[in-house]
Design brief:
alpha+beta; two-stranded antiparallel sheet; 2 helices; 2 strands; 25% helix; globular
Length: 55
C-alpha cells in the first residue's frame, strides 16, 4: 500500500506524527469518511503550525 507523507503546503516541511497542523478544506458532503488521512491529503491544504502563526 502507498504511504502518505504529508508536507506543509507553504514551506514543504515534512509533517511528523502528533504534530499540530491546520487544514484548509471544504466540508465533505458525503457520509462515512473512513480514511481521513487520505482525504485530508487529497482534498485539503496542510499548513504547519509555524507557517500558520506567520500568516
Amino acid at each position: 500500500m502507498f504511504r502518505i507523507k504529508p508536507k506543509c503546503s507553504i514551506c514543504d516541511k515534512d509533517i511528523k506524527a502528533e504534530e499540530n497542523v491546520f487544514v484548509k478544506m471544504k466540508y465533505p458532503k458525503g457520509r462515512g469518511m473512513t480514511e481521513i488521512k487520505a482525504y485530508i491529503q487529497n482534498e485539503g491544504k496542510i499548513i504547519c503550525e509555524s507557517c500558520y502563526e506567520i500568516k
